Every structure is written in structure tokens, then in C-alpha cells.
Amino acid sequence: MFYKDERLALFIDGSNLYAAAKSLGFDIDYKLLRAEFMRRGKLLRAFYYTALLENDEYSPIRPLVDWLHYNGFTMVTKAAKEYTDSQGRRKVKGNMDIELAVNAMELAPHVDHIVLFSGDGDFRPLVESLQRQGVRVSVVSTIRSQPPMISDELRRQADNFIELDGLREVIGRPPRDPMPERDREEEFAGK
Questions:
Q1: In 53-148, which ranges are E strands?
Q2: What is the pTM for the complete model shown?
Q3: Could you give the CA distance from residue 188 to residue 130 in angstroms, rounded to a whole number?
């Protein structure tokens, strides 16, 4: 469903993609992801959207954000808002849908194909609008999780649905093998 000469842009809903990959039991290697879509067409931009907790001394996502920023991804971040719900539970809100939609609409005249990494049904009107502008839209998410991570409306609207689990071998990080027992003994013995 890709053409070598088409101008591509990736729009990655960071929290949604992370949740989908986690539900399938693998981690994404973003260097491999970028390389895969560079191979499929002329990759103009790869956007990554995420909200960050600014008041935390250490955010577990900060190293990923920094790595992506230095390795060809356009980072779009904003401060997440912390609040306490009616039951007294600490909640974090950091929706990036508007930022993603605005960037996609701005870039639409310059691309042939947008790949949206999200299963969020709120993006269905965006996909429909991009299609009216002549842009093909592929959506990457999963139906293999319980429940499926992609909304039925978004999947039906997309020109192409790409099953994230089908990309596992291409963009998944290889699992780390535990150190064999003999090597561990030698390491502890200082050999």
C-alpha cells in the first residue's frame, strides 16, 4: 500500500502507541521504525506527540524524548496537568490530539500519505478531512489486544489499517536474553 515516490509523514500518538505495543508484549525500536518508513517512501517528517510531567524530578519518558529529538523525530510536547479526581485519586491529563490534528492539517498540502500511529476514534474526522484533501491515510494500531486498541470508526475511515503486531519483527526491540548462569558466575568472580 506504499509507493516509493510518495511523500510520507508519520504522526505518532506516543501514549497510544506505547499502550498498544505494551498490550502486545513488545517495545518499539524507534530507529527501526523510522528506517522502515524511510524504506517505504520519501519520509518528510516523523512527529512524536507526548505530554510530560514538568514538576517531576525525573520523568521515565524523558530519555526517550531526548533520543527521538536527536534522531530525526519532530517532538511535540506539552506539560501534563495533574489533578485529584472526586474519589481523591491523583490523575494526569495530557491530551495531544489537537496539536496532532493541527500539524497534520498544515502538512497535508505537502504530503501524499500520512501514517497515523493511534487507535483513538477521536481522529476519525481528521482522517476524513485529510482524505478530502487528497491525502491517503494509513492507521497503525492493533485489533489483537483485548480489548482492541483501535476504534472501529477509525479503522473503517482509514485507507489502510496496519496491524501493529504485524510490524513486531520489523520495528520491535529484540528481547534481552538473561545472562547465562556460567557467565554470571564469572562476572561475580571478577574474571
A1: 74-79, 81-84, 90-93, 113-117, 136-141
A2: 0.86
A3: 58
The answer to whether the beta carbons of residues 11 and 116 sit under 8 Å apart is: yes
**CA pair distance 123, 76, nearest whole angstrom:** 17
Do 174 and 167 form a contact (C-beta atoms < 8 A)? no
Q: Provide CATH code, domain 7-189.
A: 3.40.50.1010
pLDDT, tens digit, 9 for 90 and up, residues 31-82:
999 999 999 999 999 999 998 877 666 677 888 999 999 999 999 999 888 8
Q: How far apart are the first and last CA of the chain?
A: 53
- Count of helix runs (H) and strand runs (E) in the chain: 8, 8
Residue owning grid cell 518528510: 44
Cross-sheet strand order for the sheet of 74-79: 74-79, 42-52, 7-13, 113-117, 136-141, 160-163
Q: φ and ψ at 13, to 5 degrees?
A: -80, 95
Higher pLDDT, 171 or 85: 171
- Of 167, 118, 109, nearest to 139 by C-alpha is 118
Distance CA 118, CA 123 (A): 8
The residue length of the chain stands at 191
Report the chain's C-alpha Rg in angstroms: 19
